Amino acid sequence: MAERGVSCSADQIVITTGAQQGLDILARALLEPGGGVLMEEVSYTGAAQAIAAHRPRVWSVPTCARAGIDIDAVEVLLEGGVRPAFLYTVPDFHNPTGSCLTEASRRRLADLAGRFELPLIEDDPYSALRFDGEALPAVRAFDDRWVIYVGSFSKIVAPALRVGWIVVPQGLREAVSIVKEASDLETSALTQRVLERFLSSNALEPHLERLRHSYRERRDAMLDALERHFPSCTRWNRPLGGLFVWVELPPSIRADRLLAEAVDEEGVAFIPGSAFATTRDAGASAMRLSFATCEPAEIDEAVRRLARVLKGRLRDE
Amino acid sequence: MAERGVSCSADQIVITTGAQQGLDILARALLEPGGGVLMEEVSYTGAAQAIAAHRPRVWSVPTCARAGIDIDAVEVLLEGGVRPAFLYTVPDFHNPTGSCLTEASRRRLADLAGRFELPLIEDDPYSALRFDGEALPAVRAFDDRWVIYVGSFSKIVAPALRVGWIVVPQGLREAVSIVKEASDLETSALTQRVLERFLSSNALEPHLERLRHSYRERRDAMLDALERHFPSCTRWNRPLGGLFVWVELPPSIRADRLLAEAVDEEGVAFIPGSAFATTRDAGASAMRLSFATCEPAEIDEAVRRLARVLKGRLRDE
Q: Could you tell me the pTM of the whole model?
């Protein structure tokens, strides 16, 4: 974390049973009855689940598969007097869009958090999976009073360990500890020891090298396949890391209906953008394609089949 | 579980990250804002923590270190129109009192749950640690629609695994699954596999035999030591299993003040009954003594020192 500007004292780190528990704890510590949250129009479903239990008002701002969260929209809302309990975002290789905030955007977001005393949850499962360019500082690097950093070993070591962590501003430590203890007393000492052994053996860096190599190859295979097979009326981004490509279809195509056909006719699945919607109709004509688990040749074949279904639909219109 | 009358289909079992998560999930699934819970005047602190976040009204009923929860008091409240979101109790070797409900009491409690459609959380971390007599049926054996059974491997295999389970009535399955997923997605597959290997090797039963043998010896050492060293104005129960003896002191003695002296003067600690109070002044003159982690000789010495502090206090009065 240090290389990305996340410095803190040991007592600011709360080990969680996976990052999902981190999000759940933060929602419980920050959200009062009647409160609201600020999220992107498409956002990580696990965060939405953690938040949903509190039935909050959701202020939804646009997001873009290239530039990420629309910071102008955030500023307009805050200047207009909106006071959410927190803002939630994934600055590095966003789920579902794959976007990555520029350094200037990170700084600006942190400044807004400080200026409006807005807790900002920076969810970061993917930043170590960067394929192109240099690592950027975390949003947390620009503000340590309002930015709450959520880390995870799930995407870089193993999800089955269920170990993540939160870097908590001093003022939130007690509230977070109380909720953590009520949630499950403590995170398994066994899985923490397994992880400690792995990390102290210096196995992480070579492991990350292998992951980045393999995922980069798969991302490239997916981008090549999209270029080769997908019709020109579709658009997608080139993620600099992470696991996802976000494909935008013509507005006449509903991705959830396309999914049903793709599964039935071609045995290929994806997550329709609507699954990530925090506001009506967001992502309705978009698909999240994951390149994480398939070999390049399979990716090419899957994208070819998806394109076939899509072209069929476009012809029928 | 089957031998204690807890029968259910596989889809009624929800694996949890320790029983604490089970309690937390149930509080979240059952407690609406403004709701209340029915608990004993002294009750397990982890349950109180899980519940506290919801700031419920707490209806507190008497409990006794011999007979357990005062079922007459429960009935009076329910007949009086009180409608808690649930009743929480530990029927076998109660924490903190060590009490164990009779079979007739279990049946009566289950009948009340059914008659008043009252969800009853039966928290059972200790029943396998029985030293005397035959295992009694779980409360769940007498009602499978309103009794929710919470199990744990923490006291019989290892707390560091963080694996427990809930047996959920059919009508609660979906609500519980939603909260579980929002809490931490799933319980570590690694710790579940470790446990599966242990259980399928038939190592549990001999392990339990060793635990029971060792804890029985320690309980006996503690009861002998109390008999030998404690003044006649004190009372305690003879727990049939579990980890705790509940010692009642003269009402003039506040156990929390005694604790401070015991630690300072004699290097001995216990949990004062007030730490478990769900209503003002409950347990103020009682101590929970745990015989779990000390050898018999240490237990004798510790009780001797505690008695010395106590006798000093009684002389000063």
A: 0.93
